[in-house]
């Protein structure tokens, strides 16, 4: 298996809410609440059944740990948005550097 395959497997939305409940120890009500608060984004099957990924399970565990520490859902969402923006900015800088290096090397 290639490294990129494991990343795509981790993101596949194939896990039912019942299995997520068993894996995380959270109730279905808690899981749905985190979805309502825009902290988790399950896929929906044609019949409307929620499907989660392994990444979603990890995220739910992180949410539960932070909630136990007294962090509010809006604070969790704000921090994740900051991290996502920083990651996007970093990717843009890397791409910009690669493009500049490519054109610099081709001119020589």
UniProtKB/TrEMBL annotation:
All copies of domain HTH merR-type, residue ranges: 14-82
PROSITE patterns cross-referenced by the UniProt entry: HTH_MERR_2
Protein name, entry field: DNA-binding transcriptional MerR regulator
Pfam families registered for this protein in UniProt: MerR_1
Presence of the UniProt keyword Repressor in the record: yes
One of the record's GO molecular function terms: DNA binding
Keywords: DNA-binding, Repressor, Transcription, Transcription regulation
